[in-house]
Amino acid sequence: MMSWIFGLLALAVGIANIAWKRALPLPLPFLLRPWVAAVLSVFAGACWVGGSEGYSVDPSQVAHISAGSKQQIAVLALALAGLALACVAFASPSSAAQRRPKKMDFRGRWVLVTGASAGLGREFARQLARDHGANLILLARRKERLDELQAELEPCGVQVRSLVADLSKPADVEQVLGEILAGPPVYGVVLNAAVTYFGPQEKLDPRTFQTLLDTNVASVVRFASVLVPDILNRAASGGVLFVSSVAGLQPAPYQSVYSGSKAFMNHFAFGLWHELRGQDISVTTFAPGGIDTEMTALESFQPLAAWLMPAATAARLGLRAFQRRDYLYVPGFVNQLGALLTRILPRRFVTALIARAYRRALEATTH
User: Fold this and answer.
1) Are 198 and 300 in contact (CB under 8 A)?
2) How much is the average pLDDT of 156-164?
């Protein structure tokens, strides 16, 4: 019985792998990777060997083979078919890879990073300058932080411009966009700036909500709407990286507004990818889980600290996805597994688990 199960699973994974890679621009889910089909096939073969007890077939007596023996032969054929499909899957490039332009090359080109004064944005800037030789436009609210970062990065042999703006203010957004368009062509855009709120919805004041909405939603749409045509006109083969969150893939109680803003970003970026498909530009959505930054340094986040990814690691993985021109990238095995489970398990059940974990975190820090 187990050999049948393993054989059928191997066959299903092999078929699903090839179909997924040919039809979708999404990264391959963990459970559909070719080696999974190969391992299942080996398990099926092992169960067949264990159950066959040295069974052999005389070709002249095929008509007299028992039903059980025929089942053993069928299982072996199933295991071999699964192994063959795994081999084909290993060798089969995805449709996204076939259509995808060559990797982005940031060296000597201008890249805009919003929210660059701290946390993930600062790490994006550091790694772009140090590891990729990119010229940088750093955008954030705190001038002193930007000046410190500029002084840190210029010895890397790159050019750095600092722009001060509060992206929750439409006038600031329009002003910096004008300055960017008046400068050299921008090759890459990292839309990283964001604010969050962690707590009961009833305690969210209107001003905080409006700041979050303007920063996480309105400014993102405005930057993309202005800079995508500029990249197409002035910077061949450029791209935009939308820094979203796994909270945008699944409702997050007690972060409902933040989660909703990231869900908007995901849908906006996915839609934009399809609108721009075939043009000389890439759109990548990066959806990390919690990251160890100033934004998660609040006391209410401390019970969740063990789940936070270091900002340097997140930036490295995000830039790798950007460079590869991925459609969507979720970093980290736990986050990838969670994103997969949200598509398999009932949403109400998964949301209840998140609500319980976040509620406990808030209760543990409420005095």
Assistant:
1) yes
2) 96
